[in-house]
UniProtKB/TrEMBL annotation:
GO terms for molecular function: lipid-A-disaccharide synthase activity; phospholipid binding. Belongs to the LpxB family. It catalyses: a lipid X + a UDP-2-N,3-O-bis[(3R)-3-hydroxyacyl]-alpha-D-glucosamine = a lipid A disaccharide + UDP + H(+). Its EC number is 2.4.1.182. This is Lipid-A-disaccharide synthase. It comes from Natronocella acetinitrilica. Pathway: Bacterial outer membrane biogenesis; LPS lipid A biosynthesis. The lineage of its organism: Bacteria, Pseudomonadati, Pseudomonadota, Gammaproteobacteria, Chromatiales. InterPro entries: Glyco_trans_19. The keyword Lipid metabolism applies. Pfam families: LpxB. Condensation of UDP-2,3-diacylglucosamine and 2,3-diacylglucosamine-1-phosphate to form lipid A disaccharide, a precursor of lipid A, a phosphorylated glycolipid that anchors the lipopolysaccharide to the outer membrane of the cell. GO terms for cellular component: membrane. SUPFAM superfamilies: UDP-Glycosyltransferase/glycogen phosphorylase.
């Protein structure tokens, strides 16, 4: 029987979240195939797993339309270089992690050349620009989905898809520890008091739009529940400075604590969360925290979204549940007069909080599948099928 050669994997991650996913996947693939080799683009965590990165990951971490246009020639050169490398020395499989605008182009070229391709984290074609599903179908042999509601959509469009669960659900404990979180934040709440976490976003554009609204909502709440305590995690020093300036413009609002980072601790320590829509809504759900979500973008972006977006909700807990589970407010609805009463209902209605915690716990278990292991098993099965090797 001929000796099996070591497997080669091409893999590209374009940002920190992809580096996190890639490192976990690489670790589990190495457990299945100890001699496996990785090359492509990755960050610190993937480099620690032994990959060879042909370009710095930061060269792909470009956000915003105008920034992408400015860096487009360089991005195209990097993609052409990687495609040429992989065509000249084909890997056994190529894995693109998120970054669909970059990775789908690579996957399409490699699949056409007979190289098996995997895309990890499905593009949000189920929400908008659904025509892109045709590109995905042409580009990938396997799509690894991290949310269960995505599977039916891709199956309906003949895209081979496997639901692997979400790595955050594996990382965040099923039972949050509110007391320990408050101790870690060095914050004291009266025995019958309530703590509210305010998360207006991790980008300055979000904080500029939602920060003042959230602080005005906090003052609205404090006027009705004077004992309320508020915590606000700030992703950067610049954002902390902006929040301090916004806070100074809200006279009469007290008992507000700002932190550098610590967003998860702030959520875990809270009784309820007011937050910007995004990954934070998933994290708050995994910490079983009742929440209200808000969303504000530019007028032009909102106009386009109303015409292009095909889903009835934008907050991740509602998308996973497939129903209106948490209250969400967008654009002109995201004002203290609406956010305040929604938050007050959560703070005053213990039964509502208990129902949400139970629903969130059920969804946490649904997502908690050991995602990195499941993704590695799916990729390994594709490799075995492509090489016709025994398992």
């Amino acid at each position: 029987m001929p000796e099996r050669r070591s497997l080669r994997v091409g893999i590209i991650a374009g940002e920190v979240s992809g580096d996190y996913l890639g490192a976990g996947l690489m670790r589990e693939l190495q457990a299945l195939e100890p001699e496996i080799q990785f090359e492509g683009i990755g960050g610190e965590r993937m480099l620690e797993q032994g990959m060879t990165s042909h370009h710095p990951m930061e060269s792909l971490s470009v956000m915003g339309l105008f920034e992408v246009l400015k860096h487009l020639p360089g991005l195209l050169r990097i993609r052409a270089d990687l495609v040429q490398r992989f065509l000249q020395n084909p890997p056994d499989v190529f894995i693109g992690i998120d970054a669909p605008d970059f990775n789908l182009g690579v996957e399409s070229r490699l699949k056409a050349a007979g190289i098996p391709t995997v895309h990890y984290v499905s593009p949000t074609v189920w929400a908008w620009r659904q025509g892109r599903v045709k590109t995905i179908r042409r580009a990938v042999d396997l799509l690894l989905s991290i949310f269960p509601f995505e599977v039916e959509f891709f199956q309906r469009h003949a895209v081979p898809v496997t639901f692997v669960g979400h790595p955050l659900a594996d990382e965040i404990p099923l039972e949050p520890d509110q007391i320990a979180a408050r101790q870690a934040l060095e914050i004291v709440v009266e025995p019958d008091g309530m703590l509210v976490a305010l998360l207006p976003g991790s980008r300055m554009s979000e904080v500029t739009k939602l920060g003042p609204v959230f602080l005005q909502t906090a003052r609205w709440l404090q006027e009705r529940q004077p004992g309320l305590v508020f915590v606000i995690p700030c992703a950067t020093d610049r954002i902390r400075q902006a929040m301090e300036e916004q806070l100074a413009a809200e006279p009469g609002l007290d008992n507000v604590h700002l932190y550098r980072g610590q967003s998860r601790l702030c959520m875990e320590a809270s009784n309820a969360v007011l937050l910007a829509s995004g990954t934070a809504t998933l994290e708050a759900m995994l910490y079983k925290r009742p929440m209200v979500a808000a969303y504000r973008v530019s007028g032009m972006t909102a106009w386009l979204a109303r015409r292009l977006v095909k889903v009835p909700h934008f907050a991740m807990p509602n998308l996973i549940a497939g129903r209106h589970l948490i209250e969400e407010f967008a654009q002109e609805q995201a004002v203290p007069e609406q956010l305040g009463p929604a938050m007050l209902r959560l703070l005053e209605q213990s039964e509502t909080r208990a129902d949400l915690r139970q629903a969130f716990a059920d969804m946490h278990r649904q997502l908690r599948l050991d995602a990195s292991r499941q993704a590695a098993l799916a990729v390994h099965q594709l490799l075995l099928s492509a090489r016709k090797l025994p398992a």
